[in-house]
């Protein structure tokens, strides 16, 4: 082989080696770039925990006067209403006048008749007593005269207790309370025992809740947390009554819970969280659950990667929330940084 030919072969070999070296360097550089481009997130983790959780049903209702603490100011006799001194929602003290009334003509007549009957019975007893003393009347006649007087005086006392003999009188609140309804107006002619004003005893307000029959098994004694829809601290109570007939309009069952003296206005709207039982469930930090258009999910961390798990959300327990899905108790769950993750993304765990 000639010297020139050997020189050409050597040059060709050198060129080939250079080309291969360049290709290898580019591939190595590309791999490094790809490695550098692989996304990596830094997260903190917490363990999913299995716990005994309460079954809670949320219902709604209103503050109402406890029927057991209701007081009614009624007409003591046939009356004509002169003045109404209170309004619905007003707070009244024990003995405070609430309605001023006058005796109706029929009530005045009844009182006059009672006075006359008592006077006649006294006169008759005196006459029979004289006859008896003269042995002109028997024992049974004297006893009958005494009974007639006792009956007439009892009837007169009843008329006087009802305000008979007075042109007008003020009817007062029997105890401190809140006016829940006024059913009379000035000028009304009202029959005896007709209600004029209804009061709720102070501190005796309650909550009436509307229970969905299919939402759970409700029973008196179950714990309920009451919250005003206007805000404020929660009130811990228990159901004192659960009805057994659904309202024909709302299709709900009425339940009553005490307010335990909490100062909520009658008629105010409330939410009640009723504990109907307990169950075993899985809880995770609330910050670990990602809510987006794909649905609620979280990421478990294993093998240095994030794995997306779709979940169903249960009850909210403040900083923790109940989750249901393909998650084992004790599984490591991403908390801080969870919203930056994607399924399969490489992660680094940062110490808390």
Characterization of this structure:
This protein is α+β, with helices and mostly antiparallel strands and 352 residues long. The protein folds into 2 domains: 39-66 and 204-352, Beta Barrel (Elongation Factor Tu (Ef-tu), domain 3), CATH 2.40.30; 68-201, OB fold (Dihydrolipoamide Acetyltransferase, E2P) (Beta Barrel), CATH 2.40.50. It has 3 helices and 22 strands. The strands form 6 sheets. Strands 3-12-15-14-13-16 form a 6-stranded antiparallel beta barrel. A hairpin with a 2-residue loop joins strand 19 and strand 20. Helix 2 (105-133) runs antiparallel to helix 3 (139-161). The radius of gyration is 44 Å and the shape is rod-shaped. The chain starts with a helix and ends with a strand. Mean pLDDT is 84; it is low at 31-37.
Structure summary:
This protein is of the alpha+beta class. It has helices spanning 3-37, 105-133, 139-161; strands at 40-43, 45-47, 49-65, 70-74, 79-84, 91-92, 97-103, 168-172, 177-182, 189-190, 195-201, 205-211, 223-228, 235-246, 253-258, 269-285, 297-302, 305-310, 312-317, 320-324, 332-334, 346-349. The model is unreliable at 31-37 (pLDDT under 50).
């Amino acid at each position: 082989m000639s010297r020139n030919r050997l020189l050409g072969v050597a040059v060709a070999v050198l060129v080939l080696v250079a080309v291969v070296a360049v290709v290898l360097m580019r591939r190595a550089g590309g791999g490094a770039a790809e490695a550098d481009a692989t996304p990596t997130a830094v997260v903190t983790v917490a363990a999913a925990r299995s716990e005994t959780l309460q079954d809670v049903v949320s219902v709604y209702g209103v503050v109402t006067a406890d029927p057991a603490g209701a007081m009614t100011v009624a007409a003591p006799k046939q009356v004509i209403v002169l003045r109404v001194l209170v309004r619905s929602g007003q707070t009244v003290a024990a003995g405070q006048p609430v309605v001023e009334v006058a005796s109706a003509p029929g009530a005045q007549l009844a009182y006059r008749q009672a006075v006359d009957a008592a006077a006649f019975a006294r006169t008759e007893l005196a006459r029979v007593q004289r006859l008896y003393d003269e042995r002109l009347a028997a024992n049974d006649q004297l006893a009958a005269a005494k009974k007639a007087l006792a009956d007439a005086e009892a009837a007169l006392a009843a008329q006087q207790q009802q305000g008979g003999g007075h042109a007008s009188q003020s009817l007062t609140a029997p105890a401190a309370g809140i006016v829940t309804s006024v059913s009379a107006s000035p000028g009304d002619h009202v029959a005896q025992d007709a209600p004029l004003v209804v009061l709720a005893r102070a501190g005796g307000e309650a909550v009436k809740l509307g229970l969905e029959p299919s939402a759970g098994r409700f029973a008196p004694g179950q714990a309920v947390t009451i919250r005003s829809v206007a805000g404020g601290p929660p009130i811990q109570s228990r159901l004192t009554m659960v009805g057994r007939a659904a309202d024909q309009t709302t299709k709900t069952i009425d339940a009553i819970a005490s307010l335990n003296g909490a100062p909520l206005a009658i008629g105010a709207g409330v939410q009640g969280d009723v504990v109907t039982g307990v169950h075993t469930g899985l809880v995770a930090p609330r910050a670990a659950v990602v809510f987006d258009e794909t649905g609620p999910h979280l990421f478990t961390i294993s093998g240095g990667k994030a794995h997306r798990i779709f979940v169903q959300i249960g009850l909210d327990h403040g900083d923790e929330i109940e989750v249901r899905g393909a998650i084992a108790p004790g599984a490591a769950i991403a908390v801080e940084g969870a919203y930056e993750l994607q399924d399969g993304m490489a992660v680094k765990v940062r110490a808390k």
